Amino acid sequence: MKPQAAVDTARIPDELDRRIIRATQAGLPLVPEPYRQIGEQLGIGTEEVMQRMRRMLESGVIRRIGAVPNHYTLGFRANGMSVWDVPDRLVRKYGKQIGALEFVSHAYHRPRHLPRWRYNLFAMVHGRDRKEVEQKVAIIAGLLGGDARDHRILFSSRILKKSGLRLPGGG
Amino acid sequence: MNTNGSTAIRPAAPDPSSTPEDLTPLERRLLNEFQHHLPLSPTPFAEMAERLGCSESQILQLLEDLQQRGFISRVGPVFRPCGIGASMLVATTVPEDELEKIANFISSYDEVNHNYERQHRLNLWFVVTAPDQGHLERVLEDMEHFTGLDLVRLPLVREYHIDLGFPLWC
Fold this sequence. Notes:
The complex is a heterodimer of chains A (171) and B (170).
Chain A: H1 15-24, H2 34-42, H3 46-59, E1 62-69, E2 78-85, H4 91-99, E3 104-109, E4 121-127, H5 130-144, E5 150-162
Antiparallel strand pairs in A: 2-4, 2-5, 3-4
Chain B: H1 25-33, H2 44-52, H3 56-68, E1 72-79, E2 86-92, H4 99-107, E3 112-118, E4 124-130, H5 133-147, E5 152-154, E6 158-160
Antiparallel strand pairs in B: 2-4, 2-5, 3-4
Helix pairs in contact in B: 2-3
């Protein structure tokens, strides 16, 4: 297994990018010209705000721009973190396949921590209830077949803290 | 509802009386079609209105409403955690009778943005995000020092994410 740096330095946002991140991470102002308002707040032009955000979108710093749904209120009450023990040489192949399933919001390769943790592939599965999550996890199990040496679904029993990602360091 | 200033919109506490059945067809379309691709143009909401066949002021009102009712947490960019610093998924085993106290302590760190109790021997799972790796490690060592817990560090090796959007009604 060859661990890869999660951050590519060319993608690291500069100081002005970070100010834009801080100014928008809690949401855009709901006004006709939101980027102009952000620009005014930061002392830069509308075009510069949009251009920098476009660049962050292209480099992957911004995943998407849009309405951020609250899945819980929308009726998706169950989320199960499914975790899989697959041969390390196959993680990438299966990660890509699982990440493309529409009911999987995130798929990750993470290291094992033997003996406490044997699973190396994570897939977050959403459904209206636990039964639906279990049905979807069964689809993944079918896809992996005998290459899944073991798997579990870790349901969350309590959300103890959930906030949108905040860039530390306030102003 | 706490609103302190026009831009500092905290995720709304969901209004328990709102159910997905209350959503109008227009609201459903908006939610399905605009989780992505809010136009990066000077007047994004006017463009949204054009696509959905209504007025800009209607869209702004609708978004405000959806937020108030807890169906959306905000409208704006979603950042990729690793793009702006260092982050780590952490799991640990906490005795049931100490869970509340320890979970509150963990959640009290600004660097923690998700904290869940999960059904496994490793029963507490949280995500720590910091500006850099050194800061991240100091937070984890600090937590271990104060709780005596042995934290299992599960850093991201690779993410597989094909962003097809999340179909809410299919």
